[in-house]
Amino acid sequence: MSLLSLSPTLSTLKASLETFITHDCIPAEKLYEEHIAQYSGSDRWQPHAVPPIMDALKSKAQSLGFWNLFLPHELPECVLRANEELNNNNRVVPISPRMYLTNREYGILCEVMGRSSLAPEACNCSAPDTGNMEVLLKHGTQSQQLKYLLPLLRGEVRSAFLMTEPDVASSDARNLETRLSKRMDDGGSVRYTLNGKKWWSTGAMDPRCGMALVVTKMDYTHPSNDNNAQQQTQTKTKHGNQTVVIVPMPQTGVRCVRPLTVFGYDDAPHGHAEVWLESVDLGMESVVLGEGRGFEISQSRLGPGRIHHCMRAVGLGEHNISVDKDLLFNKYLFRLTTTQPLLSYSPAARCYELMLERTFQRKTFGRFLYEHGSCREMVADSAADIESARLLTLSCAEEIDRLGARGARDKIALIKVVVPELTSRVVDRAVQIFGGAGVCGDFPLARALVGLRTLRIADGPDAVHKQSLALLELKKAKQRMLSRV
Fold first, then answer.
1. What is the rounded distance in angstroms from the CA atom of residue 378 to the CA atom of residue 370?
2. Which of 342, 48, 387 is nearest to 207 (CA)?
3. Partner residues linked to 198 by β-bridges
4. Longest dimension (CA), the chain
5. Which of 197, 312, 343, 421 has its Cβ near the most Cβ atoms within 10 Å?
6. Cα distances (angstroms) measured from residue 52 to each of 17, 123, 196, 435, 452
7. Residue 243 forms beta bridges with which residues?
8. How distant, in Å, are the alpha carbons of 125, 400, 420 from that of 7?
9. Which tens digits make up the pLDDT trace of 50-62?
10. Whole-angstrom Cα distance, residue 161 to residue 332?
11. Cα 274–Cα 280–Cα 282 angle in degrees, nearest 5
């Protein structure tokens, strides 16, 4: 079976999604950017800064069956019943997807959604919400699912994920300094106090943010704790004291100090923030899965998430190029088939399209760009890079479907390193073809290059994943050598 093969039903869904992206999401990008541009400073993080066009796109995505396509399996009965009650009293939201997809199948649809910066959120399939929902679906209690998962599934709130810290190298999660201090109150109930600093906390300043998952370390130094229990928990494994907690947002003691910019882009109104956690009081109901289970949760969150990131980075787009062959071969100026300007973040294949179009529009030294050998070489290299990135990612997704995320650790590490590099090269070539226009805001190339460069740091830097990949490869080689003895 081909990695790109789909059932007839899913092929129809994909075609409908492509139409939605092309005719609704991409044209809406200009309206989205114009709305945000009206505001400056702290106003960019207020409810009125959220572009109304997004709600219109969400409503249409729900009606067309594109909502929550990331969900790996059926939702718990308690969540479905609670949603049915809300549907009877409020607006109807179909939280279950039209069909449940494998990682490979969903990866192909992620590629389609990656063509527009608005499409993932419009379909309720954007980070960090999908990862947080998967954590709550897999590890949350019934109470946590009803209180936090259901509003996210309905698209009524957004969420944040707080892990990286400004004062330590957070690529080694053992360095984290944020502490969750456990204590017994006078009534014998367990309470926790959360203290620390986080940054690159995506979504924390979003006015729609309703909850945050925070990765922290357990602290049992309070006199009310049992010393034997502390020592046993802390020495269980090298990651044994890492814990994930749910923090309702907004919350007393949670202070968003400032928005952070990525190469000058603030990505409002969702964006990224530096967050200070100052004596945040939490109960046992805030702990996900249990004390000391944070590393397990984080790893289960990252495997599928990296498939989503990589396939969105690849983007789908070659079939959208409409070239009049008579004009091409007669060397006339190739004209764009749309007057809609392309704005905001754009993945590799969409930038590749723009590069191809540019080669038919501009002349140097009496010849169109596409007639120069160096330009043709860049086109060929870009086509190879996009296809390589696509197939590597889908191969990894298929491996996760067969073996689970743990069994596909080598391929997960591989795509995390290779795909951002391959796609960055494509966009970099497009910038070179465009010249000065490639580095300004008139085209999406500069912002695409920023996003793909950042992806080499997000979810762990290249060096960490290369080390993991090398260790796994060496382990397999050693096993092969021993089997021959």
1. 10
2. 48
3. 275
4. 86
5. 312
6. 21, 15, 35, 35, 27
7. 216
8. 22, 19, 29
9. 999 999 999 999 9
10. 51
11. 130
Q: Name, in order, each residue with C-beta under 8 angstroms of 57's C-beta and a sequence gap of 6 or more.
A: 24, 25, 28, 118, 122
Contact (CB, 8 A) for 432 and 467 = no
Confirm if 210 and 149 have CB atoms less than 8 A apart: no
Q: Residue 309 belongs to what H/E stretch?
A: helix 294-314
Residue 319 has a pLDDT of: 36
Compute the distance between CA of residue 325 and CA of residue 334 in angstroms, rounded to an integer: 10
Name residues whose C-beta falls within 8 Å of residue 64's C-beta, 6 or more positions apart in sequence.
16, 17, 20
pLDDT at 322: 34
Type of residue at 472? L
Amino acid at 134: E
**pLDDT tens digits, 131-190:** 999 999 999 999 999 999 999 999 999 999 999 999 999 888 889 999 999 999 888 899
Q: What is the per-residue DSSP string for 357-409?
A: HHHHH-EETTEEGGGSHHHHHHHHHHHHHHHHHHHHHHHHHHHHHHHHHHHTH
- Cα separations in angstroms, 274 against 189, 203, 206, 243, 450: 32, 11, 13, 20, 20
Number of neighbouring beta carbons within 10 Å of residue 423: 32
- HEC readout, the chain: CCCCCCCHHHHHHHHHHHHHHHHHHHHHHHHHHHHHHCCCHHHHHCHHHCCHHHHHHHHHHHHHCCCCCCCCCCCCHHHHHHHHHHHHHCCCCCCCCCCCCCHHHHHHHHHHHCCCCCHHHHCCCCCCHHHHHHHHHHHCCHHHHHHHHHHHHCCCCEEEEECCCCCCCCCCHHHCCCEEEEEECCCCCEEEEEEEEEEEEECCCCCCEEEEEEEEEEECCCCCCCHHHHHHHHCCCCCCCEEEEEEECCCCCEEEEEEECECCECCCCCCEEEEEEEEEEEEHHHECCCCCCHHHHHHHHHHHHHHHHHHHHHCCCHHHCCCCHHHHHCCCCCCCCCCCCCCCCCCHHHHHHHHHHHHHHCEECCEEHHHCHHHHHHHHHHHHHHHHHHHHHHHHHHHHHHHHHHHCHHHHHHHHHHHHHHHHHHHHHHHHHHHHHHHCCCCCHHHHHHHHHHHCCCCCCHHHHHHHHHHHHHHHHHHHHHHCC
* Structure confidence at residue 331 (pLDDT): 30
Residues of the chain with pLDDT under 50: 316-346
Closest CA to 348 of 396, 312, 297, 308: 312
SS3 281: strand
Give pLDDT, residue 187.
Answer: 80
Tokens 């580095």, located at residue: 439
Question: Tokens standing for 257?
Answer: 């100090």
Residue type (1 letter), 484: R
For residue 187, the one-letter residue type is G
